[in-house]
Design a protein that fits this description.
single chain, 9-stranded mixed sheet, alpha/beta
Length: 453
């Protein structure tokens, strides 16, 4: 934070009168603040109003009664899987393994774009400024998601099992499938990583240890080192996965990744549900970033042992996975999960704990903590304004407590990414959101009709 009298060049945007939750532990809350943006970065955060003369001709956003936060960082999602929303939650298992629902190999390019745009739109309207996505047709869905203004990171799922047979209980690893999916990921990295002023990026995304052979996982490790990119995968997400790896490798999934060299602080490991004490110690010792899918996992009757993982040294982050994109609600579920496991309310699990997971924790997992994740001078101007002029967010005593315990993603009023306003009055500005909703509905209906044949 700097003094309002500091001499500086022109300001492009002023957010005036906000209560700011910075996610910076040095000064986590600033009331009645003015955030000044120059270009794509935060130039100043002024305690109180800035001098009127400095704001002549500057676009101003009246943020009185609003709470400003950093953009939320969703480290693990599958935007296209909005297609099974409201159905797959009650089937008890991941869609890729479940008969009778649309699968990735069923989705056409046009349908993939329609559904991915819906997922990105939903996330954006709920205050996520970065999505780390993986599924099919990413060469088309990644730029389509970026058109909404969001930070679109992703990768096609890398695997060598034949996914058209997995839901039938058939597991056959084919070298040609692994070669194709890895080559597609390498091409995606060459085409999109670092594009759109850094709003686009690519991580390698092996689907899971059970859908990748050992040889393919070794290739992914070597490729990630060559490309200097991170890895995002599912890990110990199901008893099926654990059973198959124990049968195939005589070890647990975390043991396998550790032996191969993928279990490290450049790995985002989603779920980590079915882990024993040795697995937890191994994940923590290696500094793995665990993507806690708090709501999605409990919907299926499971949860990750987040208290034990934290104590072991793992870095906890948050993701929405499939069917749901409200990171505010995910924070609430993560807090409740931690307290249930701890068996009490103490300093280990407080609103600031899960807020950090959704902001700086996610930024660190993505390797972007110097650029995003907190509202600090010099960082990217990724700013979300929540409207606290709403009955469930009053009284205004502790805005962070209200955010985690009672707010919802739909309380987002304004979203700014790279200094550009992309959501205003709870509507997206860069795309036609009504068209996106209609296109996604048509795509999902067509997919479900084909799945029932």
């Amino acid at each position: 934070m700097t003094d309002a009298c500091t001499t500086m060049s022109a300001i492009d945007l002023a957010i005036c009168g906000a209560s700011v939750l910075t996610a910076d532990p040095i000064r986590p809350r600033i009331d009645d603040a003015t955030i000044l943006v120059r270009g794509d970065r935060i130039a100043e955060i002024v305690a109180g109003p800035a001098e009127a003369s400095r704001l002549e001709g500057v676009r101003r956003i009246d943020a009185r009664g609003k709470v400003a936060t950093p953009g939320l960082v969703n480290v693990h999602t599958h935007a296209i899987l909005t297609m099974v929303r409201g159905v797959a939650e009650d089937m008890g298992f991941a869609p890729a393994y479940t008969p009778g629902v649309p699968h990735g190999h069923d989705v056409s390019e046009e349908e993939a774009v329609a559904l991915a745009r819906l997922g990105a739109l939903e996330a954006l309207l709920f205050g996520s400024t970065l999505l780390n996505d993986t599924f099919v047709h990413q060469h088309l869905t990644l730029p389509a998601m970026a058109e909404t203004g969001i930070r679109a990171w992703g990768c096609g799922r890398i695997h060598d099992v034949d996914f058209s047979r997995v839901h039938l209980g058939e597991w056959e690893h084919k070298t040609e499938i692994g070669r194709r999916t890895l080559d597609e990921a390498i091409a995606l990295h060459a085409a999109f990583d670092g594009k759109a002023n850094g709003r686009m990026g690519v991580q390698l995304s092996p689907h899971a240890p059970d859908t990748c052979s050992r040889d393919l996982l070794v290739e992914i490790r070597e490729t990630s080192a060559t490309l200097r990119c991170r890895v995002n995968t599912h890990l110990s997400q199901s008893k099926v996965e654990v059973g198959r790896i124990r049968s195939r490798e005589a070890m647990s999934p975390p043991e396998l990744l550790d032996e191969i060299g993928l279990l490290n602080d450049r790995l985002i490991a989603a779920h980590c549900i079915h882990v024993d004490a040795a697995d937890i110690a191994r994940i923590g010792r290696n500094g793995v970033h665990v993507a806690h899918i708090a709501k999605g996992n409990q919907t299926h009757g499971h949860t990750a042992p987040t208290q034990a993982l934290r104590e072991a040294g793992a870095s906890l982050t948050l993701g929405t996975d499939n069917m749901h994109a409200d990171m505010v609600e995910v924070m609430r579920w993560a807090l409740a999960t931690g307290r249930l496991q701890k068996g009490c309310v103490d300093e280990d699990w407080q609103p600031h704990t899960v807020f950090e997971m959704a902001t700086m924790g996610g930024a660190r997992a993505m390797g972007l903590d110097a650029e995003i994740g907190s509202l600090e001078v010099g960082k990217k101007a990724d700013i979300v304004l929540f409207d606290y002029h709403r009955p469930h967010l009053v009284p205004f005593i502790d805005p962070l407590g209200n955010l985690v315990h009672t707010a919802q993603g739909r309380d987002v009023h304004t979203v700014i990414i790279d200094g550009r306003v992309v959501v205003e009055n709870s509507r997206a500005l860069l795309i036609d959101q009504d068209e996106i909703i209609a296109d996604a509905q048509r795509a999902a209906v067509a997919l479900w009709q084909r799945a029932k044949m």
